[in-house]
Structures are given as C-alpha cells and as structure tokens.
C-alpha cells in the first residue's frame, strides 16, 4: 500500500513569530528563547562594569492619578508657576528647569538653561524580551514610537536638583494642570506632574515647582530657546504628555492648553 505524502500545513506559533520579529529588529544574541551558544553577555548600560548604580523605585508602578493628585495638592501643596516667573527663578541660580521629555525633543529645542532628565526612553534592544517585542509591534502598528521607563530617572533627577541652590521646576510638552474642573475633577495628568510626584514621593528634593503649560507655554511667552532646531508646537496632534507609556494614556493625554491669542 502506498501512503499519501501530503501533510496538513503547519501554522507558526507565537514563539516563532516573536523570534522572527526579534531577528528583524536586530535583537539577536539574546532572546526570549534563550541565548545562543556563541552569544556574549551584553552590558546593561554604557557605564563601566565597575560602576554601581544606586537602586531606585523605577519599576514600581505609580499610584492611580487621583492618588497622585491628592498627594501633590493636599499634602505637598505643589505650585504651578508662569514661564516668566520660572525664567527669573532660574536666572537667580536657585532653581533648575528639568525637561522630562524624550532626549530627542530636548536636543532639538528646549527652554534656555533646561537640563534633560527623560522619564521615558526608546526601547533598549540590548536586553530584549517578549514584552519589548510585543510593545514594539503594537506601538509600530499605531504609528507611535515604542518607549520604556528610564531606569536611571530618579538618580538623574537627584543630580539635576543639585545644580540649583534650592529646587527644581519640572516641565514637559504641554504641562497638564492641577486645576480641577467639572469634566476633570483631578485636573489633567502629564509627565511633568508625574515627575514632580516622584521627586517628592521618593525624597529626591522637597522643593519642587511645576511649569504652567510646559514648553508650549514657554513658547507662547516668547522666551528664549536653545538647541539644534526650532521649536514649533504640533497643533492637531495630541502630544505624548501622558502619565503612563501606554497607547491608551497617550490617546487620552491632555494636549495643549490653548488660550485666545496664542500664536500658531
């Protein structure tokens, strides 16, 4: 008797799909399936092996925004200041402007004198895993750059706070607000407010202020910028000033607090 040589087509499983994606994105050498025999261990960062990074609470999830809001407003009495006031305070040498936007945005255009302490960074493919691959796929499908928390944020924020005699002023693209409204009883969250929460809750410094309307407000006040390019608000697109690095929060982010008379 002759047996049929035809077989049922095999459907690739998720394991092989992820492996293929990691090869396409250049994440070869260490994968979710394990290291290859010839793969060499990669350093966790650009620092020397002898350096020791102070442990931080970066990977602990922040409380829900209403809890952060109550902490900032009721307990710490966080103040939001106008760009003109922030400029004078920084010029005195007592305060430091802290830009928590992505490094690329800071390099292109930033308020004069600001230092970069990004809350999030592009995915680090030196240490790939299944979560990063899936995040890359989902974000890319939605046209958003995949990001992850900056593991050195707390220490970098601490170092930035030491540049001033008194404290820090946090800002992001749009700023968010602590002013409650009918539709937003806990204001509108932003990365700069999240950074202010972390600075206070993690004991980085007890002197923290928040910049009103963020970089956009600085721009509307006709204050000085520096960087490799020119700042221009991307009106019509919601900026990624969300409280968490997820697609849902990016879509729900506050956007610019536009006022009558604002320039384009």
Topology of this protein?
Layout: H1 14-24, H2 65-75, E1 79-81, H3 83-91, E2 95-99, H4 103-108, E3 110-111, E4 115-116, E5 120-122, H5 130-141, E6 147-149, H6 153-161, E7 167-171, H7 191-201, E8 208-211, H8 214-220, E9 225-226, H9 247-251
Parallel strand pairs: 1-8, 2-4, 2-7, 7-8
Antiparallel strand pairs: 3-9, 5-6
Radius of gyration: 22 Å
**Percent in strands:** 5-15%
Mean pLDDT reading: 76
Structural class designation: alpha/beta
Structural account:
The protein has 264 residues and is α/β, with parallel strands linked by helices. Helices cover 31% and strands 11% of the residues. It has helices at 14-24, 65-75, 83-91, 103-108, 130-141, 153-161, 191-201, 214-220, 247-251, and strands at residues 79-81, 95-99, 110-111, 115-116, 120-122, 147-149, 167-171, 208-211, 225-226. The chain has a five-stranded parallel beta sheet, sandwiched between helices. It is globular.
Q: What's the gist of this structure?
A:
The protein is an alpha/beta fold. 31% of the residues lie in helices and 11% in strands.
